[in-house]
Amino acid sequence: MPISTSTSSAASTYATVSFHKSDTIRLLNFPLIIVTALEPAILASWPPGVQSQTQDTVELSAEFKLKDKPFGYYHIQQNVGALRLVRDVLAVLHDYGWELVTSVLCSTRYTAKDTLIFRQRRGQSSPVRGRGTSPVEWLVLAPLGRNKLRVVYDANGGRMHGEADDSQCQDHLGILITGIKKLLVDLRLFDKGDWSHDSFEVQLKGTPWRSRGEASVTVRIILMKILELMESHEWRLYVTMVQRSSDDENRILDTWYFVREKQKLGTAELAG
To answer: What tens digit of pLDDT does each residue of 75-132 get?
Structure first.
């Protein structure tokens, strides 16, 4: 028998975002203002569009069923689109004062994806933009397949949440990618890199995401070095999550979402 949330939702400060099947975003315990704010963000970041939307105001639940398969098996173009989609959902919730508590895996099914648990900051029910707080920007790192790493950072997308010109953002992206490439070259793991679908994809030597035994130590070194590099550019790891379905032979790797204050992008960094 389903558990009703209607008796406790008014007093609860927690809410969840979860991803189901290959095409559905489910919201639980968010107020109507959040559902209303997310709809245009989802439409803007996912070009195929929304197939249907349902809402239960008593249970405080809502679902967006999307066209195509952003959370299932898809080509690279849909892959990048799904990264931007989740990034923009995180950005809207951040703007409205919903802090991410953790990501959790609630099911043993191999198709299961992470659930994100949020908590609302006290006394905030409207966006923080324009209220004296620092605007933020977002960046995504996504390990893919057996040996790829994709970097998604949009100057235009960042402008949704603060003021910065495209040239400054692109300069920063170039500096960051140069740092990632140097890090991987020093580890003797860099094979090649190129732009595709408005993001940068690095191909690593060998199959590091499939390694085991002693070779798996290298993977952990990569992760620690990447975190150090991101921190040196003022990026804070916001959440890692599984947002795609696996199959019975291959596990899907976590996607890494980073955030930082947009004001941190200054002339000193670009000069250095």
So the answer is: 555 788 999 999 999 999 999 999 999 999 888 776 778 899 999 876 655 565 534 4
**pLDDT cut 70: percent of the chain above it:** 77
CATH class of 14-120: alpha beta
Q: Where are the domains of the chain?
A: 14-120, 136-271
CB atoms within 10 A of CB 83: 22
Using DSSP's 3-state secondary structure scheme, residue 19 falls into strand
pLDDT of residue 28: 96
8 A C-beta contact, residue 147 and residue 190: no
Q: Which residue has 């995401």 as its token pair?
A: 209
Query: Closest by alpha carbon to 30, among 52, 14, 6?
Result: 14
Which amino acid, 146? Answer: R
Contact 255, 116 (CB under 8 A): no
Q: Which amino acid is residue 142, in one-letter code?
A: A
DSSP 270: H
**DSSP letters for 61-114:** EEEEEESS-TTSS--HHHHHHHHHHHHHHHHHHHHTTEEEEEEE----STT---
Please, what is the Cα angle at 110 between 108 and 116, to 5 degrees? 65
Average pLDDT, the chain: 82
pTM, two decimal places: 0.84
